[in-house]
Amino acid sequence: MERRTVLRAAVLGAGTAAFSGALWQQAFAGVAQPGPGPYGALLPADANGIQLPVGFTSRVIARSGQRVPGTGHLWHPAPDGGACFAAGSGWIYVSNSEIPLFGGASAVRFAADGSIASAYRILSNTNVNCAGGPTPWGTWLSCEEVPLGRVFETWPEGGRAAEERTRMGRFTHEAAACDPQRQVVYLTEDESDGCFYRFVPDTWGDLSSGRVQVLCAPADQVAGPVTWVDVPDRDGFPVATRHQVDAAKHFAGGEGCWYADGTCWFTTKGDNRVWAYDAVGQRLDLAYDDSLVPDGAAPLTGVDNITGTAGGDLYVAEDGGNMEINIITPDGVVAPFLRLLGQSSSEITGPAFSPDGSRFYFSSQRGTSGNVAGTGGITYEVTGPFRR
């Protein structure tokens, strides 16, 4: 029997459930499948080399090593994880820098009309800042993707020094997503046998103390109940956190993480999957798996960063693949939303919506140059009739 058929039978036989949460009440019995996207087909590339659906336009807001337009701030190399924050009558887009030793994060502030008001550094001299996540109280968690990596809490508006949050665990951090209902922060780990964690702070809104727990389930389980167990030594030395709890479930390279209305979605690049953790029922399911798509038809490969909308659409960026951001709709359709041409040696990072959902930001980490140092990075904005 062909591999995809075997895997499909295994998943369905395991009883993959409909996804919980109000956002996915019309969920499908199984993983997302290719279909017509809500915005229609992609048009020929625009002047920025981006294929978009009808009604959408793009602009470049920053290039690595160049001043952000209208400011004196040099944009960082290798832009990675990002998020948007309301700020007065405008908003701020924050972006990490995934380079060694000097990584950190920068911010671009926009006025109410979308013009760039300022740009500045909010975190400096940290190591390979890959992804992270916003908090409900308006800070940005910037995560180091190195062994014994740290989480830094930063303030998007500037004017306050970042604070190290080592109580959140020392491991190869990737992304973070806050769950205000259970008052925990979910954390992914970018290792080939990485784990999925949650940080339980002693006081919600204060990340300086608390417990780190790891998700536990049978190694081969893709759908079913899970439990959480405290990690004995969050500092991860001499035994890495992912190897301290025998029952911990391991994932093939944790990447993006997004929480909404009872469900935490996270991606794993080693097997091209999007997972759905039902925080209410404490169970794990698959939202997307390219091996469960008919041969040659998988539109989404190289899964990486992920974000979502209030209406329940997920947007998943590709690291490689054919340099697309794909949308996964609440009714289980996966389709390309945009495609970058001429940048096959790069990866798409930092997808995030402005607070009102009308503008969408992302970066090409190495741009058209493909330079591994990320000196060719480009950060974009897309506007159009987004579903909200």
TrEMBL record:
Signal sequence annotation: 1-29
Signal in keyword set: yes
Pfam families registered for this protein in UniProt: PD40, PhoX
SUPFAM superfamilies membership: YWTD domain (SSF63825)
Keywords: Signal
Protein name per Swiss-Prot or TrEMBL: DUF839 domain-containing protein
Origin species: Micromonospora echinofusca
Lineage of source species: Bacteria, Bacillati, Actinomycetota, Actinomycetes, Micromonosporales
